[in-house]
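Notebook p. 47: complex prediction with zinc ion.
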Amino acid sequence: MKPFKVRLRFHGDLSVFLGSEAGDVIERRLAEKTSIKDVIESCGVPHPEVDLILIDEQTVGFDHTLTTDTTVEVFPVRNRGTNRTEKRLQTVGIARFVADGHLGGLTRNLRLLGFDVAYPKNADDRELLDVMARENRALLTRDRHLLMHGIVQHGYCPRSQNADEQTIEVVRRFDLSELIAPFARCVRCNAPLEEAAKADVIDKLEPLTKIYYEQFRRCPGCKQIYWSGSHFPKLQKRIEAIRSRVRGKA
Ligand SMILES: [Zn+2]
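Predicted complex, structure tokens below:
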């Protein structure tokens, strides 16, 4: 087979996955038939981050094979500026996740917003992928090689190291702002909270809590009791801050 050249231009923030000196265009010389997915991932960009691929103004899927000189335009989910709605490769609206062990802050934040996030302790890559596939969850990890695994369908690599920023990224990426339901889920163990009568929890409360609060929720998983105590306004403020950042697109 005659060697050929593929020129890939990465749009939006996909350049974060490329080498720092690379800019947003990468050229690859190939000598054999190669899938577009493999060429894109060879540049460092995991396939779950790619939402649209254009060749000669036509959308193509991951299984498209390259055999001759080609220019490829690659777009992330957050960059739907091309106004093309056909053949998007990613799904939004997914609200079930599994997070790797480095994303504890993000996990707590997403649970606080009501989202279902599995966070298996001390899980290795294999176990994370198992939970993802078995429970039909999107994978959250900053390990891009894990995200490139062939069985990953939906996933996201948080760009920031800061948990609040990561939370905003995930809500935007999966378009979840309408689904936020604060204080519906246990931040410790992920179980949905249940209403609890004061009489049922009173023997577990501190004296002042007994006096000042009437409404309680209980986690059926770890038995943690929740009420709108002194920490509550602070949490609400954080949730509002996240919401307005998501809305503001800033
Ligand atoms: Zn719990």
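Notes: The pocket of zinc ion is lined by residues 186, 188-189, 191, 219, 221-222, 224 (CB under 6 Å). The longest strand covers residues 4-10.
Next step: compare against the earlier run before touching the bench.
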